[in-house]
Fold this sequence. Notes:
With about 325 residues, the chain is an all-alpha fold. The chain has a single domain, classed as Farnesyl Diphosphate Synthase (Orthogonal Bundle), CATH 1.10.600. Helices cover about 75% and strands about 0% of the residues. It contains 14 helices and no strands. Helix 4 packs antiparallel against helix 7. The model has no long low-confidence stretch (mean pLDDT about 90).
Amino acid sequence: MNYTSYLDLHRQVAQDIDAEIETALERLGPIANITRNSVAKLLEQRKLRHPLSVLPLLTHAIETGDPRPAMPLSAVHLLWWTSACYLDDLADANGARICGELTENEALLASVITGNSLPIQIVLDQNLPESARSALVTEILNGWIIGVDGQIDDMRGEAGKASRASVVETYRGKSGAPFGMITAMAAIFSGTTAEKVELWREFGYIFGILWQIFNDQEDILSGRDEDLLNGTVTYLLASVIEDAPLESRDHILGLSATAGRSTEARAELAALLRTPVALDRYRAEIDEFRDEAHRILDELGGDQASSAVLRHLVDHASQMLLEADLGPVPATNAA
Length: 335
């Protein structure tokens, strides 16, 4: 299989991943016909914007030179994230968007099967030693537990108590744990050493932090500003609060508290997040996470062609998307 980018790889395997999912749905059998149809509708309505289901393929290819044996794990990844993203949206203040024949409650029940039962079913169907199957199931279970813990922590986040370190810890759970789960699973699948499995898990954690920061920036650029509306404490917001002079900090916290219901407060806070000083620091810290991901890949070694593709994916996740607001500096940010 020849590929030069993660998108190129995805184009080559997308139909195979869909076939893996279709097989998993067929295994539900005739007694679960309604559930099967509901899961299929959820998957159709909640398509992921970025094809990161190639991540386990790249992990496996780096360890073995061949991505294809890990195809079932790409299906697991897609199913897990479809479920998690729906549940995340459902928990947000604005709720989850569902249209067509599937009601919100039906989608909720379908998401439980999508993210839990089907991934475990796929793992149990693999021709692997029992110890490997058990380890893979454990990864799925722990991925959900740590991921949910991080998501609840994120929902309970208080801007007044936030710091860079506290937000990174939250991101390691809500985004890092799922990516660490799937890279560790692919490493187990490849038959590599326990030490490398842990290295791959840590790579997934760091990649998850980078991807969450990437998502945070996309939310701002889209104009949705869902994080400001929902009162989510992002890494950028925590950085601005942590660096603010004492005389400005309370005002910034007040803006954060009222941004969900005040267009003016939201606009002022958004401007504070995009000052040149704030974004310069943000860019430097993103680069540190990127460098750590590359360092782990250096330590892992393996197939260089596949490693180069994964490094490009890391660089894609590490982009600085935001540009500074060069308008008048808000008074609250003046030193």
